[in-house]
TrEMBL record:
Domain annotation Calcineurin-like phosphoesterase: ranges: 16-141
Protein's name in the database: Calcineurin-like phosphoesterase domain-containing protein
InterPro entries: Calcineurin-like_PHP (IPR004843), Metallo-depent_PP-like (IPR029052), Pesterase_MJ0037-like (IPR024173)
Pfam families: Metallophos
Superkingdom of source: Archaea
Species assigned in the record: Candidatus Marsarchaeota G1 archaeon OSP_D
UniProt-recorded Gene Ontology molecular function terms: hydrolase activity
Amino acid sequence: MVPLINNSAIFFEKTRTLLISELHLGFGLKYSAIFADTIFNDCLKRLDTIIKTHKIEYLIVGGDVKEKIGKPSKKEGEYLQMFEKFLLERSISAVIVKGNHDGLIENYVNFKITEFFTLNDGEANFCIFHGHKVPPVELQSFDHLLMAHIHPSVRIDGSKSFVWVFLKKVDGSRPKSVIIMPPFNKFVGGGNPKILQSKVFSKILGGKSWKGHLVSVDGVYLGEFKPLFL
């Protein structure tokens, strides 16, 4: 398992699998269709580069493929169809781990859709879920948890920078670590990675025996922090 820090993605080399989260296809439509098209094309262009560079065969989207929480608009539905065609043309098999924005998505794409996804790369086993609710599985049976949802970011000199959140269990018990991924869509809003405010995070992480580290999507180590569970 290799985090592609600058690409907001995780690569599983042995299975040629790529994990991304937070595409939010359709984001920007409330401003203008041109803006939304620009964002959509940016996402596909960057994804295409990663697919070619790493010879990707399988794609996992860890939630929030689309922007609108309920039924997608006509234009958003078109984005979903174009995204599916994009992957089919590259012979990529895809799984969607359903996020809070992915309501009714099963009516618009033919991907496998699930609440969580498990993966073993030969060295460790992983549980992948979005993060808006606790997945119906025993999390202590996994070495590592991979999630998204909060769009972790920091502000430096007034500018927003998305970050990776790496959490490590202090006592070494399972799960040993949690990675909270930055959004693949660079234009969405961000949240404070130090304050994990929902009851979901408290249930998932237990609330105490964790140390956190932040790394910007530019690859800059931003230091250690102790997460606050509110």
